[in-house]
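Q: How would the structure tokens look for this protein?
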Amino acid sequence: MPMVATFSLLMLLGVTMVFRTSLLRRDQAAKAQLRQDYREREEAVLRSLIAVFPKKAIACMKAGYATSDNHTWRAIFDEALTTAVVEKSLPDAAVAAMGLSRVRRGDVGDHAAAEAAGWITSLTGVAGNVTPGTTAYAAVFQGPEFAGKVPPLLEAPAGLADADALRPVVHLDKIYTTQATGLLADVTKYSRFNLIPYPNIRFGYASPGAPFVAKRNWWAFSIRYGKKVGQKKNYILSLYEVPSQLPIEAATFADIGRHEDGTAWGAGITIDGGVYADSLRMNGAHGASRIAGRRSIDVEGDTSLGGMAVADDFDKLGVRERMQAELGTSALPVALSANSGRVVFFPIPSGPAFLTRPSAPPTTWDTYVGGGRNCKVSVEALAMVSIDDQTPVTLRLRFKNSSDAVSEVILRRGQNWPTLLEAGGDAMPFQTELTNSNRSCVTFYPALVDAWLQSNGGATVAVNNSYHFSTVPEADPLTVRPLSSPPASVDMCVIVRKGQDLRPFTQGLSIMAPLRVYIGDDLNAVPAPAPPAGSGLPEGSLYYPPMSIFAAEMRVGTTPFIRPFEHHGQMGSLLSGASSTWRPLDMKSGTEEAVHSEGILADLSPLRSPAELPPVYQMNWLVVVEEIPQN
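A: Here is the predicted structure in token form.
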């Protein structure tokens, strides 16, 4: 009898241990599944966040950063949560269609959106707020949990530092003020944009860790997804303001490597760096090390990018993984933004409006987008010879004076605007002429403009460094034609001459016009003695003053003679969307003849420093969210 009792107790104890082990395993499995559910929901929220954020930041700028429930951080998080479908992983309609309406849900990751919103807080625990990466919140980032783990701080404009925690503040005057680690150019000279490391992401606008010209706005926040087993994580949402800087860059369909007549680019065309377009077709790399697209990339034949052979099947299942294994990194030399994870690349819309200078007062967003309205000097034709001869006889010039106010001078033929053949005409930076095809033009002489500005009370060309040319039909409707798009043969044009030496333009030169622009002479062909101090450029580097031209059309020369075309720097387009095709090196002469491939020498290279950024440029936003490492 004692033996039976002992044996029974041992059997009971064994069954109890097995049962206990089974319960523990089930509990562990349940918690693991819950954590996995939370991770998937968290990933969905973060991806939704970077998709929602840009339009809310733009809305905030258009509202002048004023208080509004439409663009607060809480509104941004709420929309991200709704987009990520945090309330139910499976909609009620789908549950009913599968006949599972009476079945109890086992998805414990489902939560009410209002409850989930309470799990997103600033680093100090304020729900619906963030902790901006600005000097006003430096104390928060000096603790051991964040010290050395966050990017350099920016300084927010006066009056907007506190607002940045409530709604996103992206501002031209949000600047670097401290020479922190990772800022490779002197912040006292390059406070708005600096030379900073490219983030470690798959989207290959640049190589991870490589320096590029940008400003990094960032905001930190915490997420605790779940009450009990949900883990608290801290994140940084970054908005990189990225001036257009690649050798070739466009927000439209770019056809790289072939001219319109089907001939391939010549050997004189090389690309140093990357290429970006909304969609693009590559016919040969021409030295490019990476290509990135938003919608699609078509690679014709085998192309070598950064030493790796890339074909049109680069995005197929298994091919991308093989390339990543060969390179030992997920950052490939060819990338679509759709495959880049928690990343959104957003070219700021420009289009033909970028070339205009509206008379209406600009909003904060309008000023930020820039273009013609931000040019320091405006040159407007107020009267022409006749409606059929659009040669200007009256020009209105507005420019910055030495007091940083705007001065105005009106030039009239026969009064204070001598022709080239009249006394004083050879000192005027603005003249008129006809091209060989009888197009009426205003001629701009950059070499003469500095002396003329100063003689008329203006600031030097270090300040007056951007020039916008246009007509004002309402000033004299009987002689001034409204502009056509594209420009008509009777429209006024602009010729640039005597611009070989631009060294007086120490801050660069930009020329803009919703017109045809002719390059009449060599332009910006004399290098500066040395690169600017603190620019981040190596000592001894060849440096030219930065220059940009934005025009409705551009021609090389003004005569039937097809001049060789030599270009060093970047090329871009104002076209947007996939419906237009842009071929970067389809150049034409002054009489519409194509500049043949053998006559083109182009060394296309990226910006190396903020010192190479011209006064007027296009802008992109790169939005990234990443976790702050925990100890």
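The chain has a mean pLDDT of 89.

The first strand starts at residue 120 and ends at 121.

Upvote if useful.
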